[in-house]
Design goal:
Helices cover 25% and strands 31% of the residues. It has helices at 22-25, 27-36, 79-82, 87-109, 114-124, 185-188; strands at 5-10, 47-52, 60-62, 69-74, 130-133, 139-140, 146-154, 159-167, 172-181, 194-197, 202-206, 213-217. The strands form three sheets. Strands 5, 6, 7, 8 and 9 form a five-stranded antiparallel sheet that branches. The chain has a four-stranded mixed sheet with strand order 1-2-4-3. The protein contains six helices and twelve strands. A hairpin with a 5-residue loop joins strand 6 (139-140) and strand 7. The chain starts with a strand and ends in a 5-residue tail after the last strand. By secondary structure, the protein is of the alpha+beta class.
Length: 222
């Protein structure tokens, strides 16, 4: 069995309404880390859940966990992370959390921490965002004069789904912010549905699991 995910959660500070707290902000790092995490062989653990508790003095283990999971409590108050301003500072602090509190867990369990270090180096290349196309796009309209592009941008503070329509020369004829949500893939995943041209001038993106739909329209040819 191999470790697939390291998830950090704030169990010290209560998140306020409409606040993008520690757990949401670090979701970007979690997704990217999982993308590059390879070669960590464990006996029976695929998911490492890390509870950050400012009132602890040492690393402890929690008996409650999910199947094929391990829950660890660490002596860390996420307010240290939240008080930082720049993405670079937050990434450095995230790396410090893993090196200071998760590396000792790996050592105790006999797991290789090298893949985590390599994955953290890969995260740097993304420069604070995960950008990806919506499945099935780009897509040409029926008369094949225009192409519709839809892509998601996940940062530490938000998720945006953006649609564009370009002509054959690459000129942007229309651009629209389709969705803006909190940076949590479990929440914004419902918007990553299907996309299709209704006709030559109207392109729709719609959810598979709800009634949500957005349309991008361009002017008809003269």
């Amino acid at each position: 069995m191999q470790l697939k995910e390291i998830l950090l959660q704030d169990f010290t500070n209560k998140q306020k309404k409409n606040e993008i707290g520690f757990t949401l902000q670090t979701n970007l790092f979690q997704l990217l880390l999982s993308k590059y995490l390879q070669g960590i062989h464990t006996q029976d653990v695929e998911y490492l859940h890390v509870y950050c508790l400012g009132n602890l003095t040492e690393i402890t283990y929690d008996s409650y966990t999910i199947e094929n999971g391990l829950t660890v409590k660490i002596p860390y108050n996420p307010i240290q992370f939240l008080n930082l301003q720049s993405y670079e500072e937050k990434f450095s602090e995230y790396k410090r959390i893993l090196d200071s509190f998760i590396a000792p867990v790996f050592l105790e369990k006999g797991w290789d921490y090298t893949p985590v270090t390599k994955a953290l180096n890969e995260i740097k290349r993304h420069e604070g965002k995960l950008e990806f196309p919506l499945k099935g796009t780009p897509k040409k309209n029926p008369n094949r004069k225009y192409s519709a592009f839809v892509y998601g941008i996940h940062t530490i503070t938000s998720f945006q789904l953006i649609g564009k329509i370009l002509d054959k020369n690459g000129e942007c004829l229309a651009e629209k912010l389709l969705v803006e949500e909190v940076p949590n893939a479990n929440i914004y995943r419902r918007f990553l549905g299907q996309a299709k041209w209704i006709d030559n001038y109207n392109f729709q993106v719609f959810s598979k699991t709800s009634k949500w739909v957005e349309t991008i329209t361009i002017k008809k040819d003269d």
